[in-house]
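Collaborator request, handled under Task 6.
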Amino acid sequence: MPFSKRKLKSNGEHRDHMREDNKYKIRNKILIESDLFYSPAFNKLSKSGIITLLRCLQKRKWETTKLRGKKQTVYAKEGFIFPYAEAAFLGVKTTQHWKNIRQLIEIGFLDLVYQGGWYQKHDREKDYSVYQLSERWRKYNTPEFIKIEKTKVLPDSFRINAHIRGQKLKVTSQKRRCQLHESESDKHKSADSRLHKNEGDETDTISLQSLANAT
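C-alpha cells returned to the collaborator:
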C-alpha cells in the first residue's frame, strides 16, 4: 500500500477516534453535596469507584420548576446508560467498571432501572443496562438501609463457547479411547505373533530331533 494511502487511512482513523472522544466529553458541572462527601458510603469507594460515581453525577439532568411559588432548579430523575466504552474513555477497564457499578448499586448510590443483557440485533444496537441515581446511600450502615445487588448476566456466546469446549473435550476423550484400544489391540497382535513364532520354533526343533533319532 502506498505511503499516501496509509497516511490517509491513519488520518481517517484519527478523526474517528477524535469523534469518539468528543462523544464522551460531557460538559455538565459535577455537584457534590457535603452529606454525600462525608458519608460512610462515599468513604467506601476506591479511586476508580469515585471516578465512576462522579461520572454518574455528571450525567444528571436539571430542570427549573416552581416550589412554593419560587423557581428552583431540581434534578430530573431520569435513567441513563454507562457503556464500557465510556468507562474506558475515563481510564476504567471493563472488569473494574462492572465492579464499580455493582458496588455503587450495593451501597446505595445507584438503582438498576433496567437490567440489560447481551442482545444485539445490529452492530450499533446494544441492550444496555439503565441506571438511576439513588438516595439509599443516606441510610448506608444503618438498619434502615435497603440493599440491592446487581446480578451478573452472561452472554450467550459464553454458553456457546462452553458447549464448544465441552464438545472438543468429548472428541478428544473419544480419540484417546480409540488410541488406547488400538494400542491394546497392537499389544495382543504382537503377543500372538510372538506366541505363534515360539510354537513354530519348538515344532521345528522337535522335528529335527525326531529326524536325528530316526537316522
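The cover message to the collaborator said: "The first helix runs from residue 3 to 23. The radius of gyration is 36 Å. Please let us know whether this matches your experimental observations."
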